[in-house]
Sequence to fold (221 residues):
Amino acid sequence: MREQGPEEGMEEERVWIPSRGLLLEGRFCRGRGLAALVCHPHPGYGGDMENNVVMAAYGALAKLGWSVLRFNFRGVGQSQGTCGDGEMETLDVRAAVRFLGARAGCALSKTVLVGYSFGAWVGLRALSEMEPMLGWVAIAPPAGIWDFSFAAALAGRKLLLVGEEDPFCDPSKLEELMRILEEPKEVVALPGVDHFFRGAERRLAGELERAISSWSCDLKD
Fold:
């Protein structure tokens, strides 16, 4: 089923993603060449694939012409199952990556994961058990709440996109995370923005487009 997407003229398809006996609700926008998966924030606090940050990232990536998939973790929206503490959600991320690769016809080397808050923590943990991707984006990673030290082992291009007034992303923890990440890496801090990016969605989308539009420049078809 095709529906009007979040950007004018964008078509998206309602899809169902198999994950260990469950079906996860998703939306897929077909592009060309590259693909991206967007993971939503904590469902316990109302996070789902309709979240403002998720939609801003999804629209920005689709604007670049990429194939993009957003989805609801288990127990969220019309996805089957029950919400967990992040362990089972890593299975959902890996299932969504496989689905995206098959639907978009993209290898992991041409795929990017974008996770917001809880979605960043769960998404990056899932990547730690997969072959390397082209890169990953952590939006507002709550480094003051969860341990992100495992990300030191993750390959690919890396972007941390945060608000300068985010109480859940302690500056010292963010600096520590940036120190342990291997190049290439970049951190972008938006002044006057907190964890939720309300009213700053266009700024977020613009920085995301700017930062990752060059990631594919040295890739060969």
